[in-house]
Amino acid sequence: MESIQAIKQRFGIIGNDAKLNRSIEKAIQVAPTDISILVTGESGVGKESIPKIIHQLSHRKHGKYIAVNCGAIPEGTIDSELFGHEKGAFTGATQTRSGYFEVADGGTIFLDEVGELPLTTQVRLLRVLENGEFIKVGSSKVQKTDVRIVAATNVNMFEAIKKEKFREDLYYRLSTIEINLPALRERKDDIHLLFRKFASDFALKYKMPTVKLADDAIQLLMSYRWNGNIRQLRNVAEQVSVLEHNRSISGQTLKNYLPTGAGQNLPAVINDTKSESDFSNEREILYKVLFDMKSDLNDLKKLTMELMKSGNISEVEKDNEGLIQKIYGNNEEKTVQDVPVLAIPEHREDIVEPVIEAEDKYHFAEEIEEEETLSLHDKELELIKKSLERHSGKRKLAAAELGISERTLYRKIKQYDL
Ligand SMILES: Nc1ncnc2c1ncn2[C@@H]1O[C@H](COP(=O)(O)OP(=O)(O)OP(=O)(O)O)[C@@H](O)[C@H]1O
Ligand SMILES: [Mg+2]
Question: Per the UniProt record, which residue ranges are transmembrane (predicted)?
């Protein structure tokens, strides 16, 4: 059996922390079995290495390894992606397609962000776990597959179960053995080691001498919270390596690169020249309004689709209570019966009301169109980046701030390759 050290080297894992070693050891131990594994740990702790280790050290290593980010696939296509579909199963299904569970027969599937799976998909997944059976979307034929499943999550699954977002039976099936990766703040002795490794990688990449930390800077690294864990540490190492002329980094200098978590709701732009910062804040508000409008429009589209499909207003109303409340607020008189009219312009006013004075609103919208259309894409990217930075990579908080769903944020992160 390969030693833990050899495995770490092979998979580029840095650190000597006892908890980290225990997790890797567990991965090595379970690899030869077919037991389902749930990898847990905060965002950025390195969960993605574990399923790779498990696959490579198993008898399946010559089979396929497929990593699926469950949060990044739109809800409408996820069943088809995972289990495939029959020709004609839905509009656009011009051909029969194999899903990942068919393709990965004999191999391993890594279900990342498994807590994001829609409930209907969870039912299908449970069946695969129980007896290796699945059915393509639009088919009635039961197929068999032999796939090892490793799942990962950075959310509290018990809370998801309590909120009925995740099936308890599936949770227990998936997490026969749990491998938890420690947060960076729990492995303080590894922090400086990791920083040195990243700093030396970036020095090589950017052809500059390696930055070196003064003692007070090392102390600062070790006492920082690192909500975004190793991903955040690597980002800080990159920024410092690229931006600092002086290669010797003091604590005072390093401080500038470490956002303080408490001020999560403060404006991200803290500028010396007041007028400029006011301007950016105003812009931020405007883009936030645009985000909100877009998100509501998407919700409305979804509602309309469901209405068209089902034709049963009260049923749709019952199934989409949360969504309707989100779009219309708590006003009990407004029900889905109002929806077919799709009073978007009228509704748009509702949405922008708190921010922009009534008579200005279309004027504003036009101005944005004229001046910013070309860079809207850049602005969206910029806002997402800013928000993620402000929340140390925590997508849940960033999504809430941006007023979009977590799923939409995942897709944007993927789309912009963030
Ligand atoms: N021990 C480590 N040594 C070196 N690099 C690491 C280590 N752990 C994580 N990394 C790096 O940190 C980054 C984040 O790791 P990874 O993508 O596995 O995080 P994650 O736990 O899956 O986070 P999320 O829940 O946000 O998806 C990756 O680039 C990874 O290579
Ligand atoms: Mg991940």
Answer: none
- Closest-lying ligand 1 atom to the alpha carbon of residue 39: 21
Task: Report phi then psi at 37, rounded to 5.
Answer: -125, 140
- Which backbone phi and psi does 151 adopt, to 5 degrees? -115, 160
Please indicate whether residue 47, judged by its CB atom, sits closer than 6 Å to ligand 1. yes
Query: Which-ligand-closest: CA of 7?
Result: 1
Please work out whether the CB of residue 232 comes within 6 Å of at least one atom of ligand 1.
no
What separation in Å is there between the alpha carbon of 233 and the centre of ligand 1? Answer: 10
Ligand 2 center–CA 367 separation, angstroms: 39
- Decide: 236 and 222 in contact? Cβ < 8 Å: no
Q: Give me the numbers of helices (H) and strands (E) for the chain, helices first please.
A: 20, 9
Q: What pLDDT, on the 0 to 100 scale, is given for residue 282?
A: 53
- d(CA 110, CA 134) in angstroms, rounded, equals 17
Contact 344, 365 (CB under 8 A): no
Amino acid at 171: Y
* Atom nearest to 48 CA in ligand 1: 18
Residue written as tokens 């905060």?
42
Domains detected in the chain = 4-182 (3.40.50.300), 188-255 (1.10.8.60), 276-374 (no CATH), 377-415 (1.10.10)
What the block records as the tokens of 310 is: 């089902």
* 355 or 99, which is more confident: 99
Least confident span in 51-55, 61-65, 237-241, 261-265: 261-265
For 7-24, what is each residue's pLDDT tens digit?
999 999 999 999 999 999
CA of 402 to the centre of ligand 1 (A): 25
Cβ of 52 less than 6 Å from ligand 1: no
- Look up residue 194 and give its two tokens: 């990791």
For residues 20-45, one letter each, b for 16 or more C-beta atoms within 10 angstroms of the residue's C-beta and e for the rest, the string is: beebbebbbebbeeeebbbbbbbbbb
Amino acid letter for position 168? E
154 Cβ below 6 A of ligand 1 = yes
Q: Does 190 have pLDDT greater than 70?
A: yes
Q: Does the C-beta of 14 come closer than 6 Å to ligand 1?
A: yes
Whole-number Cα distances in Å, 391 to 42, 91, 401: 13, 39, 9
Distance from residue 44's CA to the centre of ligand 1 (Å) = 5
For residue 290, what is the enclosing H or E element? helix 274-310
Report pLDDT digits (tens) over 350-388. 333 233 333 333 333 333 344 444 567 788 888 888 888
Atom 31 of ligand 1: nearest residue by CA position: 46
- Can you tell me the distance from the alpha carbon of 41 to that of 181, in angstroms, rounded to the nearest whole number? 5
Indicate which ligand has the atom closest to the C-alpha of 49: 1
